């Protein structure tokens, strides 16, 4: 069959001779008829597969395929979460002071912009205090505005150190009102003042089921869980950011069951002793135990995204029951400190931030916070909704001893200071006067910093 076909195609010309295309022969040019002819003539049709195909025109796919290297696992996420803290297109702003431990406590600092010292910038970066929602990438170097609320919060931090009594504080307010910035400011103050700082940048990361977890031996009813990989990274960050302070203090308890450290080992040695994630949680626990002994530096323990740790987590226990976030031991450690169950004999602060614009309604947390806020203002205490069935006693216990601090818009004077800073950085061309400041302040939802940035720097961010 095959040979017969082949023979036929040899015998019969596949297209009429008259339609053959002959090469143009240039005078004097040498050529070979055979090869040029066979290149010009279409291939013989042997079966229907050789018929000219109707090509479907696709304009989208495969039009211009250029080999692009696929990003490695985690690369896209890293790009999305990348923090850029300087921008060479911005003008350096002269004449602003650098932050010091005392700066943010002083009334005179209200409404002023300060530069964060480079050393602290590195520590804050290690602790993951900077967020992608903030506009650091537009300026030459990181600065922040000290607001009225900043001074109030920092004064409370200072008092907690003086009185050796922990500040337990929940920051609340609308979206983009500066809660995460207030946490960053508290961290800066603590780092400058020789505290140990521990920061959980996103409560969500602990409860959304995206990090490994393992049950803790001998815990039943309810079973408790450690998150080894998360804890390992956290421990390394704690070590890197707090090394100079941790090196100054020797261990007081015997941790020989956990690690074989020499006599006279320091807190830094302890933090460094966990070489595998399996030992991360026991080591964090040991470090925390040491830090809460008398004679240690004050501790600042902060968490952003409180609502995410005051709920049922996305984890399941081996019998497929839901796991309450408070049964994750790292969360537990934070919650116990926030509720006052763990005392901080050297002073210090536990600060959590939560947005009022969470997509999910969180009845227990909202109720407690509104009750605390009303109590602080000597107003009538809101009552629980009798029809609400989802109140969670554990959330109430976690929050009942905290001080609620509300962050909303900045004042007009503070807005003016911010806009002058933006102007000096070359980002705002408007002439600054009472009218333009008022206008931006109003457009930014009465001084909501994030909204003002959106209004004034919008073109820059796109
Ligand atoms: C630097 O600032 C300019 C505006 O001044 C902005 O367009 C650019 O995106 C910024 N660069 C980065 C890397 O954010
Ligand atoms: C956030 O919530 C407040 C009050 O609950 C509301 O006034 C504001 O418009 C909300 N903001 C956004 C961006 O949803």
Automatic annotation (TrEMBL):
UniProt KW keywords: Mitochondrion, Ribonucleoprotein, Ribosomal protein, Transit peptide
Q: Pfam families of this UniProt entry?
A: DAP3
Compartments reported by the entry: Mitochondrion
Where is it found, in Gene Ontology cellular component terms? mitochondrial small ribosomal subunit
The protein's GO terms of the molecular function aspect are: structural constituent of ribosome
- Name the major location: mitochondrion
Q: Where are the transmembrane segments?
A: none
PANTHER family, per the entry: MITOCHONDRIAL 28S RIBOSOMAL PROTEIN S29 (PTHR12810), SMALL RIBOSOMAL SUBUNIT PROTEIN MS29 (PTHR12810:SF0)
- Record-stated family: Belongs to the mitochondrion-specific ribosomal protein mS29 family.
Protein's recorded name: Small ribosomal subunit protein mS29
Species assigned in the record = Purpureocillium takamizusanense
């Amino acid at each position: 069959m095959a040979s017969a076909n082949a023979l036929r195609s040899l015998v019969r010309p596949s297209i009429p001779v008259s339609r053959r295309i002959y090469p143009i022969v240039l005078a004097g040019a040498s050529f070979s008829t055979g090869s040029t002819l066979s290149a010009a003539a279409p291939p013989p049709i042997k079966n229907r597969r050789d018929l000219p195909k109707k090509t479907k025109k696709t304009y989208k796919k495969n039009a211009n395929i250029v080999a692009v290297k696929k990003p490695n696992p985690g690369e896209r996420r890293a790009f999305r979460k990348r923090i850029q803290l300087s921008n060479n297109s911005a003008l350096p702003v002269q004449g602003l002071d650098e932050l010091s431990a005392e700066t943010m406590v002083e009334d005179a600092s209200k409404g002023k912009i300060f530069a964060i010292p480079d050393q602290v910038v590195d520590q804050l970066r290690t602790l993951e205090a900077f967020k992608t929602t903030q506009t650091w990438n537009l300026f030459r170097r990181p600065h922040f505005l000290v607001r009225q609320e900043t001074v109030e919060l920092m004064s409370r931090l200072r008092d907690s150190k003086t009185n050796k009594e922990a500040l337990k504080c929940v920051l609340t307010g609308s979206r983009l009102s500066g809660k995460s910035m207030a946490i960053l400011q508290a961290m800066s103050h603590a780092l400058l003042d020789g505290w140990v700082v521990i920061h959980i940048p996103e409560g969500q990361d602990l409860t959304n089921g995206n990090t490994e977890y393992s049950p803790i031996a001998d815990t039943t009813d309810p079973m408790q869980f450690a998150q080894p990989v998360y804890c390992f990274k956290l421990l390394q960050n704690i070590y890197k950011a707090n090394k100079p302070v941790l090196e100054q203090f020797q261990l007081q308890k015997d941790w020989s069951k956990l690690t074989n450290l020499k006599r006279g080992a320091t807190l830094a040695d302890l933090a460094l002793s966990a070489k595998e994630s399996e030992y991360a949680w026991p080591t964090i626990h040991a470090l925390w135990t040491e830090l809460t002994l008398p004679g240690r530096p004050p501790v600042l323990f902060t968490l952003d995204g409180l609502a995410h740790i005051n709920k049922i987590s996305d984890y399941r226990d081996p019998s497929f029951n839901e796991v309450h976030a408070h049964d994750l031991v790292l969360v537990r450690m934070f919650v116990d400190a926030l509720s006052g169950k763990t005392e901080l004999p050297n002073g210090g602060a536990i600060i959590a931030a939560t947005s009022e614009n969470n997509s999910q309604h969180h009845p227990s947390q909202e109720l407690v916070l509104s009750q605390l806020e009303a109590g602080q203002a000597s107003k009538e205490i809101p009552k629980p909704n009798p029809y609400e069935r989802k109140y969670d006693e554990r959330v109430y216990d976690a929050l009942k001893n905290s001080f609620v601090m509300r962050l909303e818009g900045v004042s007009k004077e503070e807005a003016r200071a911010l806009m002058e800073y933006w102007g000096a950085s070359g980002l705002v061309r408007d002439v600054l006067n009472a009218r333009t400041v008022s206008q931006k302040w109003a457009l930014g939802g009465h001084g909501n910093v994030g909204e003002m940035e959106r209004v004034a720097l919008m073109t820059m961010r796109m």
